[in-house]
Amino acid sequence: MTETRTDLVGRLRRMGGWRRYALILAGDSLAIAAALYLAFLLRFEGRIPPDRWAQLLRCLPILLAIRLTLHVAFGIHRWSFRLSGLQEGVRIVQVSLMGTGLFAMFFYFAQRATQDVSVGPPRSVIVIELLIATTLVGISRFSLRLAQSWGTQAFRAHSADWVRTLVVGAGSAGELLLRDLSRSDEHNYHVLGFVDDQPSKWGTTIGGRPVLGSLDDLPRLARRWQVQQLLFAIPRLAPERLRRVIDACADLKLDYKILPVSFAYLHDRLSVSMLQDLAPEDLLSRTPVSFDAEETAAYVRGRRILVTGAAGSIGSEICRQVAALEPESLVLADINENGLYFLFRHLQRAHPTLRLVPEVVDIRDPARLQQLGGEHRPHCILHAAAHKHVPLMERNPEEAVKNNVLGCRNLVRMADAVGVERFVLISTDKAVNPASVMGATKRIAEMLVRHYARRSRTIFAVVRFGNVLGSAGSVVPLFKTQIAKGGPVTVTHRDCRRFLMTTREAVGLTLLAGLGAEGDLFVLEMGEPIRVLDLARSMITLAGHVPDGDIPIVFTGLRPGEKLDEELMTEEEARSSHTVREGIRAVKSPPPPDDLEAGIGVLEGLAARAEREALRERLREIVPDYVPLDPADAAAGSSEESEVAVP
Question: What span, in angstroms and rounded, lies between the C-alpha atoms of 404 and 391?
């Protein structure tokens, strides 16, 4: 029966053109005629006198002509049975009132002209006809939608295929979401009701669904109503509040989806397809920083851009966003030929008119870099190439120096030689009071950039990242893999905390601050650091499992070079920092030592000979805050990554 009704509604939806309009107007004609007949019948208490029959037949063509003309003029015949709502209902009432007014006016002047009061119908008939005609036309317009909605609700309530769902948020976004769910066949959500933190909404109904309580009541309501899915429809729900909800529901094995768009956007457009799985990015301890795309485009459009480390997770995202901002050309430089090839093919398909140049380049080769710069003459260089994995660099410190220090020096010299306008180094919070070889080498790279900034025409800048969610080797894909395998999820330490940022924020900071703002070092305001353990528990919950129940969490111990807590700035840098725009701070870094290049020259020789102990000691001389590990501890390493990786 449900399938038959659905097929009928589907055929009516698909019918178009004059056939559809003719069918609707024919139905309206019957409704208008029935309304006039019933009005006479009620006026004369169920028995219409013969002379009134003649009056009825005389009035009917005029009433039909007036009402049908208005229906066509105001588009009432162009009705969407699936998308109609309150505004359309109000339009029916307005057109009905207008038709009644014209009908009454016609007979008023007819009576004045003929001096015959029997020409027009009684005034009570006009009023009754208005009420009945409006009701019948409204029923004809909304009955299909109501029947389908009621039938679908009854079917969903007793079907195992439908997912019992609560909508979190009983505001405008929640109402719009329910409205779209009610008229869409492209989902399997059976919405039982709403929850909202505003007490005035409790006990009310929205679209026929009750507001059952607050967000704190979710665990109780989910158990009582056997809820399987939560749909978050509060566009500006605080991340801290969201995390508390997830933690409270951790043992319920729910699925979670969210509308990751602003309320203003929802007001214009909303569909079920906008719902996205709740992701770790939604659980940040702050509202993500947004960047103006048009402002960013002003620094990229029409310019030649070179990106190193282009095939990496951060580099490739930089390339994707830069390519969309209409540069004159985009040079993709990386030693990873496979990743470079696939990135090039992807961008070529997405931007067929853009001049894209893939270059297989080792940044440790200064001659090759000079040749690259001379050939392409970039306006801007975005330097994302680096060795970033802390335990691996503890085991292989000479490689960290060759890539992170000497590679950066080669690139800086090339930028200065060919007259690059802007050079942006992507650094990491692990360069602050470093405890690892990787952090120390990135700190020296920052010093190199500041050193050349004092004597070059090129504008040099550093952007210092926190831990980028979703980047290659980071905790998010690692945890997802471990959860998919059934666990265990490995965390280094119970109290390990990290500053987290999204890939979009990382790229926005690089393009907007690095290319546009004045200053030598920029950091994102990332709020309070998040415990990695909390992130692990939330990800297990979001996957529909119970932390420490379905999926165990194992603590592996801090790996060589790791700290419990990272820092975004040194104390000296924090005192000199200031906000240059919302969410971004500019930092005045101390000048590099005068003998920096001589020290790097010594590092170069030690790295070439793989003299690891001496190399670590030299790193400490250049970066006094760095305390190297005991070589035996560094050699121990770790067999599996379980910490957030840096770019």
Answer: 15
First to last CA, the chain: 58
Rounded CA separation 440/428 (Å)? 10
Side-chain-side CA neighbours of 504 within 13 Å: the count stands at: 8
Is residue 228 domain-shared with residue 181, that is, in the same domain?
Answer: yes
**Residue 584 β-bridge partners:** 524, 581
> How far apart are the C-alpha atoms of 25 and 482, rounded to whole Å?
62
Cβ(529)–Cβ(566) below 8 Å: yes
5-19, 554-568, 620-634: least confidently modelled range: 5-19
Q: Is 75 helix (H, G, I), strand (E, B) or coil?
A: coil
For the record, the structure tokens of 156 come out as 């969903």
d(CA 112, CA 633): 109
Whole-number Cα distances in Å, 167 to 122, 126, 139, 257? 52, 46, 29, 10
Q: Which tens digits make up the pLDDT trace of 345-367?
A: 999 999 999 999 999 999 999 99
d(CA 417, CA 373): 9
How many domains is the chain partitioned into structurally? 3
DSSP secondary structure letter of residue 628: P
Any domain includes 536:
no
pLDDT in tens, 26-48: 888 898 899 988 999 898 888 88
Helix (H) or strand (E) holding 617: helix 612-622
- pTM check: above 0.85: no
CA dihedral 36, 40, 41, 45 (to 10 degrees): 150
Question: 473: left (phi > 0), else alpha (psi -120 to 50), else beta?
Answer: left
Q: Where are the alpha helices (DSSP H) in 44-171?
A: 50-73, 86-114, 123-157
Within a domain: residue 29?
yes
Assess if residue 321 is contained within a domain: yes
- Do residue 150 and residue 173 come from a single domain? no
151 and 220 share one domain = no
Single out the residue of 222, 200, 225 nearest to residue 211, CA to CA.
Answer: 200
Of the candidates 532, 543, 534, 530, the one whose C-alpha atom is nearest the C-alpha of residue 487 is 543
3-state secondary structure of 168: strand
Tell me, what CATH number does 235's domain have? 3.40.50.720
Alpha-carbon distance of 506 to 132, in angstroms, equals: 63
Same domain, residue pair 59 and 79: yes
**Contact of 497 with 530, CB cutoff 8 Å:** yes
